Amino acid sequence: MSQSSPLYRLRWWFSLLLVLPLLAQAAVPLPSWKDGPSRQAILAFVSAVTDEGSKDYVPPAERIAVFDNDGTLWSEQPMYFEVLFALDEVKRLAPQHPEWKEQQPFKAVLEGDQKALADSGMEGLMKIIAATHSGMATEAFIDQSRSWLANAVHPKSGKPYTEMVFQPMLELLRFLRANDFKTYIVSGGEVAFMRAFAEEVYGIPPEQVIGTTFQSEFQDQDGKLSIQRLPQLAHNDDGPGKPVSIEQVIGRRPILAFGNSDGDLQMLQWTMAGRGKRFAGLVHHTDAKREWAYDRESKVGRLDKALDAAKQGNWTVVDMAKEWSRVYPFENN
Amino acid sequence: MSQSSPLYRLRWWFSLLLVLPLLAQAAVPLPSWKDGPSRQAILAFVSAVTDEGSKDYVPPAERIAVFDNDGTLWSEQPMYFEVLFALDEVKRLAPQHPEWKEQQPFKAVLEGDQKALADSGMEGLMKIIAATHSGMATEAFIDQSRSWLANAVHPKSGKPYTEMVFQPMLELLRFLRANDFKTYIVSGGEVAFMRAFAEEVYGIPPEQVIGTTFQSEFQDQDGKLSIQRLPQLAHNDDGPGKPVSIEQVIGRRPILAFGNSDGDLQMLQWTMAGRGKRFAGLVHHTDAKREWAYDRESKVGRLDKALDAAKQGNWTVVDMAKEWSRVYPFENN
After folding, report:
1. Same structural domain, A68 and A176
2. Which residues of A touch B251 (CB under 8 A)?
C-alpha cells in the first residue's frame, strides 16, 4: 500500500485514535485522585521542589519521602493486619506450646475469647507479638510472614491483605519516585514483617523500610550462621519513636511525610519543622462504604491530635470519600 | 588554515597525543592498584556478578557492598581518629565541666597523663566517648564534628584526617557504584560522626552509613523540636554487632564486604555464607613506610582471627605495601 493512499492515511489516523487515550492516561499523574485540594497540593509541591528555577528547589539526594504503613498505605481495620497475623500464628504454633492452653493472653486467643483478649490490654498484645515474632532466624520469620500473606484473607473483604492497599497511594509512591524522591516506610509495624511484602506491593526495597525492631543476635552454631530474633523490643517505632528512627537510619530530615493517625504526629511535625518547602499529609478515613470511617474515637488508628495539628498547620488532609475515585486496586473503576 | 594543510594535520595529531593518556587513565579501573592478585580478584568478581549471561549474575538491587571505616577506608593509627576527636573535645568542653579536673579519665586527658588514661581502659574510653558524643542535638554534634575535621591535623602526617583516606579504596567505591553497587559503611564508629564527612569524602550518603549509635530522644520544647543524644549506647556496631545492624538497617545480605580487623570477622563471614558468588576482602597494613605495619599484636585494629579465616576461606588479603601504588590522595604518583 502506498503511504499516500487514502486507506493508508485512514489507518494511520485510526491507530493514533487508539493510542491517544493511552498516552493521555500515562501523562496524567495520580489518576485515582479526583482533582480536589489534596491532588492539587501534591502536584504543586512536587512541581516546586523539582523545578531547578524555583526558589523551593530541592536536589534529588534530599528528596526523602516517608510514609506510615497501617492506615496510610493499606487498611488497618478491624485491627492492624500484623496483629491478625500474630493471632493466626498463636493458633498455628499452639501444638508446640501446650502451656498456652492455661496461659493468658494465649488461652483467650485459642478459645476465641474476645473479652479476655481485650482485657489483657497492651501488655497482652505485646506478649502475643513477642511470642510470634521472635525465637527464630529472620529469614525463617520472613518466610512465615510471606506464607501467611499468601494464604490469609481479610474477614470483611475476603481479599488477601496485600490487595487491601490504597491505589491512590500506590500512584503517589510511583509519582514521587518518578520525580527522584526516595520513598521510605516509617511504621509501627515490625520491620521484617513489612519487608516480606513492601518491595513487591509498594516498590519499596528492604533498606527503605523502617519499623519497630526486636533485639537480635548473631549466632554461629558449628559454622552455621544465623541472626536470631530475641523477644525484647529494640525500638518502638511509634509516635516520638518515628523521628528518632528517621534520624538514626536515614540521617536526613524528610521533605514529605504522610500518615493517618496520632502515631504519626511527631514524624509530621519533624518533617514540617525543617527549612524550605515541605509537605505533610494525612489520610482521613471518611469512607464507611468503600473502606472505613473513623478518627477521633477509634481504638485503632486514632486521629485526634494530629487532625488538630493539621488544621493549625495547614497540612493536607485527604478526605478519602470525596477525593479518591478508587480506594483499592481490585475495584472496578 | 585548510584542513588538509600539513600544519593542521600536525596540530591534530598533537592534540590526540595530549588526550590519549587521559582517555587511557579514565578507561582503566582501579589505577592505584597494582595489577596483583587483589585487583584481579576484584575485577573478576565484579565482572561475574554484572554479566547478565553469567551464572553468577546478581541483579543491581541486590548488589550491596559494605565497608568498615577505620583502617579500611582511612587510617586508624596511632589511635582511631574519632577517639582523637573525643580527646580534643574533652579539652574544649573542660571549662563547662570544672569537675573533670578531679575526675578520671577526664583528669588524665586534661593533664596529658598517658598512663592514667591507658589505665582507665575500655570503661574510661566509653566515658570519654559518651561525655563528648551526647547531651546535644544531632545537628549540633554533626556541626562540631565538621568543625574539628576542618581544623585538626594528624600528629604524624600533619594532614587533615579527611585526607588520610586510602586512594585505592576511593577508587574501589567509585568502581563499584559505576557497576550499580550500593556502597555502605558498616563501622564501629559513631554514625553521626561518620555522616559528618562520608558523603563529601567517600561519596556515601547519610542513609548508607551504619555505625555505633547512642540512644536519642525526640524533644518538643515550646514548639522547638530536636532530637537529643543520650549518653547510653543503643548499638555497638563491632564484631557480631555488624551483621546484626546490616540485617536491621539494610535487610539484605551484602555480596561484598571489606574490612581490616577482627572486628570485621562476623560481617565478612555473614557476607560469605550467603548463596551465590561473594567477595570478602581485608586491607592488610603492611606498609610501615607510607602508612603503618601492624596485625596480630596491635591494640588498635588487631587482625588475627580474621587473617586466619581469610587464609582458610580464600578471601582476598590486600598487601598494602605490595599492591597499592599510592596510599593517600595527597601523595605524588
Report:
1. yes
2. 191-192, 195, 206-207, 209
